[in-house]
Write a structure and sequence with these properties.
By secondary structure, this protein is of the alpha+beta class. It has one domain (4-84): YhbY-like (Translation Initiation Factor IF3), CATH 3.30.110.60. It is built from 3 helices and 4 strands, in the order αβαβαββ. The protein has helices at residues 4-14, 30-43, 58-69; strands at residues 21-23, 45-50, 72-77, 80-84. β3 and β4 (80-84) form a beta hairpin. The protein is globular. The N and C termini lie close together (12 Å).
């Protein structure tokens, strides 16, 4: 579980990122979970965009996607999510205590 200070740190790092995963009309599919997991392993911090065509609101997609990928939901702003999961080997993002 992330602390408030850690979430602030991640939000600062995520500000300049572009969304790399798009959740559309298919909603929470297995392909979205795999893609998000792959991106988290590559980058540790990932922006996800929930498109207008998705039936679920971003506030519901965020916790579901975080649970399925074993990540932490750092932020939800509008239709954009910020997910964090430390890389298993050689993590690059250092979280404050």
């Amino acid at each position: 579980m992330l602390t408030g200070k850690q979430k602030r740190h991640l939000r600062g790092l995520g500000h300049a990122l572009s969304p790399v995963v798009m959740v559309g009309k298919e909603g929470m599919s297995e392909a979205i979970e795999r893609k998000t997991g792959f991106e988290l392993e590559s980058h540790e911090l990932v922006k996800v965009r929930v498109l207008d065509t998705c039936e679920l609101p971003a506030r519901e997609v965020g916790p579901l996607l975080a649970e399925k990928t074993g990540s932490e939901l750092a932020q939800v702003i509008g239709r954009t999510l910020l997910l964090y999961r430390a890389r298993k080997k050689e993590p690059t993002i250092r979280l404050p205590r």
